[in-house]
Amino acid sequence: MSQNDTSKTSVLTPPSDLNPRLDCPLDFRDRSWTAMSPADYAELGFIAGLEVHQQLATQTKLFCRCPSGQFTKDCDAEVLRHMRPTLSELGEYDGTALMEFKTHKEIVYRLHRGTVCTYEIDDTPPFEINEEAVRIAMEVSELFDLNLVNELHVMRKQYLDGSIPAGFQRTAMVGLTGSIPFRVPELGVDRILRIRQLSLEEDSCREVSDVGHRITFRTDRLGIPLTEVVTEPDFLTPLEVQAGARLVARTTRCCPRVRRGPGAARQDVNVSIAGGRRVEIKGVSHHRGLPRLVHNEAFRQLNLLRIREELLRRGVTDAALRIPEDGLAWERSQLVADVSTLLTSCDYQPLRDALDSDGRVIAVRLPGFGGLLTHRTQPGVTFAAEIADRVRVIACLTGRPFFVHSDIIGYGLHSREWTQVRKALRSKKGDSVVLVWGETRDVDTAAREILLRAQDALVGVPSETRQSYPNGTTGFERILPGANRMYPDTDTPPLALPDAWREEIRARLPERPWSRADRFRKRGLGLEAAQRLANSPWADLFEALDFPDAQTARRVEAAMQKRLRLHLRTSEGRLPTADRLQAWVEAIANGALRPEAIEVALDRLCGEPLLPPSDILASLQPHEGDERALAALIQRCVAQAPTLRRREEDSVMRWAMGEVMPPLLGRVAPAEVQRRLQEALADGDQEVQR
Amino acid sequence: MTKTDLYKGYREPLLSLMKKNDVVVWSEIRARTREGVFEGLVLPRSETSDAEHLVLKLTSGYNLGLRYDTIESMEEIGYREAHYKVPEKKFPFDPAKPKVKLFGTGGTIASRLDYRTGAVIPAFSPGELYGSVPELADVCNLETEKLFGVFSENMGPEQYLVLAEECGKAIREGYQGIVIGHGTDTMHHTSAALSYMVQDAPVPVVMVGSQRSSDRPSSDAARNLIAATRAAAHGDIAEVMVCMFGPTSDRYNLLHRGTRVRKMHSSYRSTFRTLGDIPLAMVNDEGILPLKDDFRRRRDDRDVDVRAVFDDRISLQYYYPSMKADVIDGLIDRGYKGIVIAGTGLGHVNRLVYPALRRARAEGVVVFMTLQTLWGFVQMHVYETGREILELGVVPLANMLPEAAFIKLGWALGMHPDRPDAVRKLMTTPIAHEILSREPHDGYLVFQGGVPEIKGFLEQEWK
């Protein structure tokens, strides 16, 4: 039997955070994302994956009976908590957990009686899991062709940042290992997107403020059910990331019971390049900014790897950056010094303010880092910001600024003062010096964190989650949690998913955008148009129409694409019926409607709902008397033409066409009008010159 | 591993399937099912879950269940046996700090979760405690002793007696404080028992539990332990107390008297309240702030009066309308020696019970009256019913809490076997504030949520 076979070992390991390629092209030239080709990204070893969160439109929350999707800023009461790291099964603290604990944060939850009960604040055990949410999650899993589990096990995923009062999120695996077609003609992409998994979980709190040691959260969003769809790292360029995010969102939204509107869907994106490792950018709510964001992350990793290379070349070692764990940093290590007394006469205002309010100024020596702190890692951001970011988050320093360093010459301190500080640290040429100021406990944490980040520089790219900023750059949020932060929720029993549920869901599964697009292609549309149509709100309307031939279908799709979005915006989302449009389709097919009148006809069919379609179409087709009207209009143009004499000939013609065409649209061929106008205007000119 | 461990928790029909495929608990397997292929580690199955699902842990840490009849084949591809162990770190000794004894009885406070299986396992040695709550070393020199490993509901007279004797021993050995880790459900029963059994102690005896197990980041266990050891090591109150959260926020703990405290909410952190009086003190990061001054003070001697006796032939009857005599008769028939009634209002039962009360008195079974209202005094002279019941020999117990009275009755019967009059006398004589001579105006405070002044208070103060 296997248990006696000591040679048997574990073979299953979590997916690695490291990029599969280790050879980073360090000499790759930095450039903007618009100047990069797919081949360039391939050279960088760029890969990315997505985690797409979608709130579900259930009546109540996932584990309690509070109403779901009601949002308020009102507050009836507050609760104050702290989070403690708990030990993993290996007897170690998770890196993230420890970091959050180091911050000594007071966590304040703002409660409103209408949106939260005692469950959300972790004072009541969970109620039964919301069955409606489970069914929706199963349906979304089916949309992604995932293998459904037979029995749901609720797990606790630890979050010590305070975003969930329990310190963990309840989450359950619903489906695994699926794939969907990933076809983006404009990017030349036609392959499969692998979906790793779908889980059903509760949403977290929203941060209200984070000042010093106090972080405040609003709880109205807490506990709303959401699905998390995780893709494999199959995206090879930033534009693919964007297209993939749209595809996952559209596929999820095929299920009618998901929430829409701002904040209802958010994604995390995982990025790495050759030699780098997975970095997670959290909570990106718009698809538009994704390409620039992930591009910047790719180059941040490239620049961190360059810094690593340079540090290794200079012979900087991890051991040279370590200090004892106990006591105050400046009492235990020569890398750190308390320089408060040296700088009593300093006139740099932020530092002055700290000293005046009994703060300390601490100097940290980074051996061999000279000049690297100003190395650029993101547009407008240097490596010093990587360090400062971490110090701000973990040591909770509130001064602005709280940090200067010696790589910027002539900033902060006078050179005489820098010399004194360097002397106190026995700093050598080629070292960098960082100064931080604040309260004793905070600057101790800060000094340690500076050295820890410097150690990470030797690794290259630290495992982090980062937050995105509107300008396309990112900032440190926290250390990426390890695999040991997941453990079973002993408060909820496993839930068997009955076969009947799955059969019911499969029987009435909404059609997915790609199979719909396939059907549209059979009607004669190109791939791009077919996909565009399948994802549009008028796809049903198009489907309800009869097309005698492929060309008509293409013309109708193009006209709808051009005009209906605008119409939807002005008409509270109402589209005309298929009955109303069928005569229009036929008029296009049999040539009764001239091509230039197609869109105008559609506009009027939508915009004048009380007018019969036959009247609208008739008014856009040739009439008796059109010739007389044309002659009169041309006459008028010729009469006004002299006032435009000094203008370019082209602009005169454009003006004249604009005068003549609209009243006669669909009734006279534009080429004919142009020819007649040219003649008439030429005649008119001669008369004037005479 | 024994044979049952190989398939821990699995029964038919899965058992044969596992055997047939040479798969055991802790096998890493690849399973082909009707749904698709799943890879993961086979976990033990909970005995209380159904017999149809195989539990897999994925590499992502998630668990899931596969139903036996969807499994087409299973193949063992690896093996990883997991044993959870809390790391031990040597508890540092500081000669300048007081020596405190921590007794473990079980319950949430002394347990951790096995990450792989979800099972709760005990964690209690000083090293384990120091490993998870290092702040304890700043408070005192802690020594621990595990007396039992039972959840609250399995604590009873047998354990009370051991605990009382052990407290006496620890005091005589010179510990400067005692902390007792206990499940919260019956903590107020045990605290009452120790209040009667361990009299005139020279040092604090502090009971502590937790409402959220320490494997949860938001657990109250660490804060409760720190506050309890602080009260035991440095506090001046030498009584039996319960130390638990004041509000639900992480702000301060309260020290409640062992006979006046009661668990009042099934799951809140701030579940323990002092009834009919105010708590003894608040404990926070700064220290201990007494709220009362009528407490017994810490002494330097090692003298203590331990009276560890208990007769468990007692019952607590919660009166209900239409209660009949047969309930009491049944107890008398089965040889019960004493009954505490939790009566309605000021201390009433209906007439249907009278014959049984009469019989109890005749047969030497002592009967006492306490209140379902929890707050207030038994007053049996106000209404005729009360006077009638008094006539039948039922003894009113003033404002003693029903649980405190029940425990005291067991102890009193142990003190005076076969002497009903002596038992009655002891029951009505206050030992440890279980009977108060007066109720302060703020001894009864149950806030009414929703009214404007309480809303204002919650918004402004109760943070």
Shape of chain B: globular
Task: Please tell me how large the radius of gyration of chain B is.
Answer: 26 Å
Task: List the quaternary state of the chains.
Answer: heterodimer
Outline type of chain A: globular
How confident is the prediction overall: mean pLDDT of chain B?
92
Number of DSSP-assigned strands of chain B: 23
CATH architecture of the largest domain in chain B: 3-Layer(aba) Sandwich
Strand segment count of chain A: 23
Structural class of the helix and strand makeup of chain B? alpha/beta
Radius of gyration computed on alpha carbons of chain A: 33 Å
Helix fraction of chain B, binned, reads 25-40%
CATH superfamily of the largest domain in chain B: L-asparaginase, N-terminal domain
Question: Could you characterize what this model shows?
Answer:
The complex is a heterodimer of chains A (690) and B (463). By secondary structure, chain A is an alpha+beta fold. Chain A has 21 helices and 23 strands. Chain A folds into 4 domains: 33-278, no CATH class; 312-466, GAD-like domain (Gyrase A, domain 2), CATH 3.30.1360.30; 513-616, no CATH class; 626-689. In chain A, 37% of the residues lie in helices and 19% in strands. In chain A, strands 1, 4, 6, 7, 8, 11, 12, 13, 20, 21 and 22 form an 11-stranded mixed beta sheet that branches. Chain A has a 4-stranded mixed beta sheet with strand order 2-3-10-9, with no helix packed on it. A 4-stranded antiparallel beta sheet of chain A has the order 14-15-19-18, with helices on both faces. Chain B has 3 domains: 3-79, SH3 type barrels, CATH 2.30.30.520; 99-306, 3-Layer(aba) Sandwich (Rossmann fold); 314-427, 3-Layer(aba) Sandwich (Rossmann fold). Chain B has helices at 3-6, 14-20, 126-132, 136-139, 157-172, 187-197, 221-234, 325-333, 354-362, 384-391, 402-415, 420-427, 452-460; strands at 27-33, 37-42, 53-57, 63-67, 71-79, 99-104, 111-113, 120-122, 141-146, 177-181, 198-199, 205-208, 240-245, 253-257, 261-263, 272-274, 281-283, 288-290, 305-306, 314-318, 338-343, 366-371, 395-396. In chain B, the strands form 6 sheets. Chain B has an 8-stranded mixed beta sheet with strand order 9-6-10-12-13-14-17-18, sandwiched between helices. A 5-stranded antiparallel beta sheet of chain B has the order 4-3-2-1-5, with no helix packed on it. In chain B, strand 13 and strand 14 form a beta hairpin. Strand 5 of chain A pairs antiparallel with strand 4 of chain B, so a sheet runs across the interface.
